[in-house]
Design goal:
This is Large ribosomal subunit protein bL25. Keywords: Ribonucleoprotein, Ribosomal protein, RNA-binding, rRNA-binding. The chain is α+β, with helices and mostly antiparallel strands. The protein folds into two domains: 91 residues, Beta Barrel (Ribosomal Protein L25, Chain P), CATH 2.40.240; 82 residues, RNA Polymerase Alpha Subunit, Chain A, domain 2 (Beta Complex), CATH 2.170.120.20. The chain is built from four helices and 14 strands. The strands form three sheets. The protein has a seven-stranded mixed β-sheet with strand order 1-5-6-7-3-4-2. Strands 11-8-10-13 form a four-stranded mixed β-sheet, with no helix packed on it. A hairpin with a 2-residue loop joins strand 5 and strand 6. The relative contact order is 0.13.
């Protein structure tokens, strides 16, 4: 998994201070974890974007107050109008302590059902897993090669060493749906009816 190093600065707390920080292009953040007192800090908005606009999970080395913290981006709050990040939570990682994180799903392979005209539908784009920091995956690869039309994979079907899935076992992750042929059948039926009508008109003449 990729590691991103971010240099942070301490910040003052409070709404007025937070507004001032945002006006300068920074994002107010908080660092927390078990056995760690919450630490307020700020980072440039541009430094936060690689952690937000990505299809992978990243580990973060946060440099703050002369210390380096291994952590992970846990939550981001966005402005309701501009959609810009206005606050972020980072959780400290401890090598012996499991953590629950949300990991993107990535499809691998081409399903048999797709080759036969079926449509792949990714129902669950992210999965919540609990694991040790060393086992946090950048993404969860789902091999769909052997799925035929009508087949589906559920959370209970997934087996990855070191990962505990938090979703219900019957939660659908991906399904190969049958092709939509209703429209084609209707068009063919309409063409047939038109042909019959034309034939009838020719006979009466």
């Amino acid at each position: 998994m990729a590691i991103i190093t971010i240099e942070a600065k301490p910040r003052e707390t409070g709404k007025r201070a937070a507004k001032a920080i945002r006006r300068q292009g920074w994002v107010p953040c908080i660092l927390y974890g078990h056995h760690v007192e919450p630490v307020p800090f700020q980072i440039p908005e541009l430094k936060l974007r690689p952690l937000i606009y990505t299809t992978e999970t990243h580990l973060v080395k946060l440099e703050l107050n002369g210390q380096t913290w291994d952590c992970i981006l846990k939550d981001v709050e966005f402005h309701p109008v501009t959609d810009r990040p206005i606050h972020a939570d980072f959780q400290v990682l401890r090598t012996t302590e499991k953590i629950t994180v949300t990991v993107p799903v990535r499809i691998v392979g081409t399903a048999i059902g797709v080759q036969r005209g079926g449509v792949l539908q990714l129902v669950t784009h992210e999965l919540e897993v609990t694991c040790l920091p060393k086992d946090i995956p950048a993404h969860i690869d789902i091999d769909v090669t052997n799925l035929d039309i009508g087949d589906a994979l559920h959370v209970g079907d997934l087996q990855f060493e070191g990962l505990e899935f938090e979703e219900a076992p019957d939660q659908t992750v991906v399904v190969i749906a049958a092709p939509q042929i209703g429209g084609l059948e209707e068009e063919e039926g309409a063409e047939g009816e038109a042909g019959t009508a034309e034939a009838g008109s020719g006979t009466s003449a």
